[in-house]
Structure formats: C-alpha cells, structure tokens
Design brief:
The complex is a heterodimer of chains A (236) and B (80). Chain A has 8 helices and no strands. Chain A is mainly α. In chain A, helix 7 (197-216) packs antiparallel against helix 8. The longest helix of chain A has 32 residues, at 10-41. Chain B has one domain (2-79). Chain B contains 2 helices and 4 strands. In chain B, the strands form 2 sheets. A two-stranded parallel ribbon of chain B has the order 1-4. In chain B, strands 2-3 form a two-stranded antiparallel sheet. The chains are: A mainly alpha (236), B alpha+beta (80).
Chain lengths: 236, 80
C-alpha cells in the first residue's frame, strides 16, 4: 500500500476482514468437498485433488488478506468448522453436487467476475498484487464446480438442483456485496480493492445472466426460474 | 460482453477439466491443449492473458497472444 495508514478509511479494514472470513469459510467447504469427492471417486480423482488444492489456496488467500489488515486491532474471526453445505437429508453424492454448485459455480464465478474488475481498478502494489493472486486461483476454483456438475450430468439427472439455485445465488450475492453505509458508498475505494456498490451489482447481474444462468441451462427449469428471479431483483 | 467471454473460460473450461482435457494440477494453464481448440469449433479460445500461458514472444521480443487464442476481459500479454 502506498497510502499511509492514517489515510485508510475504516471501511477498508472492515471489508477486507470480511473477505478474510469468506476465504476461511471457503477453505473449510473446499476441504469438505475434497473429502466427499475422494470418498465417492477415490483418492486419485482429479477433481478431488483440485478441491484439495482449492482448500489450500483459500487458506493462503486468507493469509494474503491478513497482510492487508494486519494493522487492524480487531481479532480475526474464526469461522465455524462444523458446517456443511446443503439441506440436511440428501445423500453424500447429492451433497457433493449441491456444494460444488453453491461454492464453485455460483460463489467462485461471481468472485472471479468481481476480482477481474477489482484488479483493473486497484492501486498498484500490495492491493493489486493480492487481488491478482487470488484471481489466479479463483478461475480454477470456479472451473472445479462446473467440472463436478458436468460429470454428474453425464452420470444422471441433476435437475433436482434447480430449486436450490436461487437461494445459492442470494447467499453468494449477500456475501460478495460489501456492506457500506450511504456515506461510505460515495467514497472512491476502488484503489483499495473495493468496488462501488453500483459497479459490483452490475457485474454480479451480468455474471449471473451471462455465465451462471447459461452454465446451469442444462438443468432445464433452472433457467426459467432464475430468469424470473432476475426480473424480480431488477424490479425490486 | 466481457462476462460472456467468462462463460467460455469458466464453464467450458470446467467441462474440459471434468473430461480430463485439462490436467488437475494445471487447470488454469492447460487451455493450450488441442482438445480445447476443437471444443470451441474453430473459434479463438478466450484466455486470461495476464494469468494463463497463451502468450508468446515474437522475434522482436514483444509479447503477443498465440494463434488460436484471444485475450478476454481486457487482459493483455503485456501484463503477463
């Protein structure tokens, strides 16, 4: 960072602390996904290895983020370690599909779309370097989800997933959109790796419409359901 | 329009990862494989030129995108 700490708005620390928590949670969920994929397809399964790599990547991302917020006096949030993604009564196989869709296809895809723009706008130095390094990994993390779904679609019907997709998107959008006060939203924080709410929302909407929606298109009813959701979001 | 290019990079890239056309350890760089070129039916492969190995250096020492690839999301080989 080339600016002095005294010039850094508090919101910058708050947003990056939130990102640290998100990275740690993602690591936890990727590790869980890796174990589940290994149990289903064996330890040598290439996607299980990618999931393991993703878990390690996310831990490293959290460490990178900590270098940005190390001046903050607030304690690091430790995420719950016993959570699993998905509804309670589904099989291990279905949970792998659910987790891959929520974690990779939705969350990591949105993250990639946002990070690409963040990288463009971030100030050269620590912030841009950190964003670049995280982006480099998020591409593979997103692909992992689309890979798991492509394999599952080859193995059988995964249209049951459609009814869960809107909630996955809602959750991911809430996670990826920093909570800024009205006055903070007026600040230009792009140099600090924080997109304006309007910019972020536009990118998220386009990523949902042009990447996630077409990606889930093979799920049949998902597209109509999600198109309706998008209209509701726009009108709301 | 850039998000449409992201579809190719992520969704198609993921499908290729599932099929083994992209290796598990080098998923982000293996877009160089001929299988990808075939999968995109002759269309240039969308590539994060600042992240992936889709750039070359010409005889004059200038970085340029390899044949069959196109830089997406305003990335360029100069950033690589």
């Amino acid at each position: 960072m080339t600016k002095t700490n005294a010039n850094i708005p508090d919101v910058v620390f708050r947003v990056w602390r939130a990102r640290e928590r998100v990275e740690l949670e993602a690591s936890h969920h990727f590790a869980h996904l890796a174990r589940a994929l290994s149990a289903l397809y064996g330890r040598q399964d290439r996607l299980a290895k990618v999931a393991t790599q993703a878990a390690n990547d996310e831990e490293r991302h959290a460490e990178l983020v900590r270098t940005i917020i190390r001046h903050s006096e607030l304690l690091r949030h430790v995420p719950p370690r016993n959570t699993v993604l998905g509804p309670p009564k589904i099989s291990r196989y279905d949970r792998v599909i659910y987790a891959s869709a929520a974690l990779s296809c939705v969350t990591e895809t949105l993250s990639t779309a946002l990070l690409v723009e963040m990288q463009k706008q971030a100030e050269p130095g620590l912030i841009r370097q950190t964003v670049h390094e995280i982006l480099e990994d998020e591409v593979l993390h997103s692909r992992l989800g689309w890979a798991v779904l492509a394999r599952a679609a080859d193995e059988g019907d995964i249209s049951w997933l459609a009814k869960y997709i809107p909630a996955m998107i809602e959750e991911a959008v809430a996670t990826d959109t920093p909570t800024l006060s009205p006055s903070e939203a007026l600040l230009d924080l792009s140099g600090w790796g924080i997109l304006s709410p309007g910019c972020a929302q536009g990118l998220i909407l386009r990523a949902i419409e042009q990447v996630i929606l077409p990606g889930f298109d093979h799920l049949g009813s998902a597209r109509n359901f999600l198109s309706l959701l998008m209209k509701q979001r726009r009108n709301g | 329009m850039e998000t449409q290019k992201l579809f190719s990079v992520l969704v198609i890239g993921g499908a290729l990862l599932a099929g083994g056309s992209i290796g598990a350890q080098d998923g982000t760089s293996a877009l160089l494989t001929s299988e990808v070129l075939e999968a995109t039916e002759g269309e240039p492969v969308q590539c994060f030129c600042n992240l992936e190995k889709c750039c070359d250096v010409d005889c004059e020492g200038k970085k340029k995108v390899k044949d069959g690839f196109v830089c997406c999301w305003n990335t360029s080989c100069d950033e690589n």
